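Hi team,

Filling in the usual template for the complex we talked about on Friday. All components are listed, including any nucleic acid strands or ligand strings, so the model treats them as one assembly.

SUBMITTER: L.P.
PURPOSE: interface mapping
COMPONENTS: two
RESIDUES: 519
SEQUENCES:
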Amino acid sequence: MSRADRRTPLHDVAIVGAYNTRQAKALDVSELEVLFDAMEGAVASANLSLADIDGVNVTSSTRRTNSREVVAWLGGRPSWTGVDIGIPGIVEAALAIAAGLCETVLMATAQVREYTDRASTAPWTRPSNEFVECFGLHTPGEFALMARRHMHLYGTPPEALAEVASAIRSNGARNPQAVHFGRPVTPDDVLRSRLIADPFHLLDCAMTSEGGGGLVLTRADRARDLGVTPVHLLGAGSDRQGMAYVTAPVWDLYGQVGARAAATAFAQAGLSPADIDVAELYDPFSFEIIRQLEVFGFCPPGEAADFVLDGQLRIDGSLPIDTDGGLMSFSHAGLVQLIQKPIAAVRQLRGELPDELTVPGAVTAVASNGGSGALFTDVLVLGAEAP
Amino acid sequence: MTDSRPLPTPTELSAPFWDGCRQGVLRVQQCRRCQALVFVPRPMCPTCQHTSLDWTDSGGKGSVYSFTVVHRPPRPAFAVPFVVAIIELDEGWYLLSNVIGCDPDAVHIGMTVEVAFTDMDETITLPLFRPV
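RESULT (copied from the run log):
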């Protein structure tokens, strides 16, 4: 299938700025300062200034900064505000640009001091619904219930989960911007770490941290004039199967969530999984990577464990993943990481990561958000070359 | 069992379920048109989109579909380790719960279990499960 067969308005839009603020277990500055840094850093990385922005999707978690408020900060110049987050937020912004509602959109978000009750797990891991909270379900448990069923069906070994976590954490260990910079982790380290919700050990799970990030999108024809390397939107897709963390995470009902997202995104891009050079996959827990590899079509059902154990996810493998260190090692500042997956993909394709984390010759990347336990998965395909 | 875990606040939609637990009956919604069993409760049948659903009684027996032994609880109120499990009821519907009354390490997929109604306070009874 040629790309022309699946023309989408997304093809008229490019990402021209991508920026992460400083990330840390706990930052020593206010959430507003981090948000300002995310906004200014993102537009600077696009060779633009805030005066060039006419569409915004700018939020923060603890202070609950919203886009309409930010329009006021920008003197009322932006005429468009977005409401969705992460990859769907990027799609929403791109469609607004393609439809002529605005020309250049700033997406930025930040989170500081949302997680203060350290006797409990992070607030974003504790759903409050009446059919899960009273049974002690948290997101590690939710995703563990999916992992356990997959292990039962396919014999997926704990060593494969540990290799996923080790591969991702080894990337973060080499990324000076990562919270866990300088902390390489072996598969044995993962298996020896304390149990959280079996089969997940501590090092199978995302960290908790604080930080921010931002992206700038504009018309692809304008992107060429900015003096920066544009990264093109090749395709996107979404998959929704109900409300997150309300029903039991039954593998037979929800385990394939994301298949529709990937099928749509790859079709729009005119690519197959084999054409993808790097994958910034959402990594709340190690098993979720194995699931996405199968559901997105990188591996047949039940065969991702062998692919993983063969070292294919490492930087020198056939499908390097989470090259910035992901939620496990780079940062997991609550909702911020939804946008940081596309940021990682853009920075990888622009060659902005450290040399030892740069995938040679990479021109296509996939980013994902969500996961099986949450009953949603979004997929974005990006390219260094125009579609 | 009494502990300080967060307890459900029944809604108009879910009240028949929680009332049933209080009365020692496990209830599940059933579509009046296509007879599909529906859980968690909702105002529309997800199979045929009919909007009249009744409540029917479950036998309260089933098996463990998947489980996890939790060692780091969401809140200190939960004593660890404890078992969070998806129970597949014999009628073919799924419920999230805890398996109690056995060593967590003894729980396995396929283990047959039955509901163990457990009063938590003056109004809320949880449908926990124990090995048969």
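MY TAKE: Residues 216 and 253 of chain A are 37 Å apart (CA to CA). The mean pLDDT of chain A is 96.

Thanks, L.
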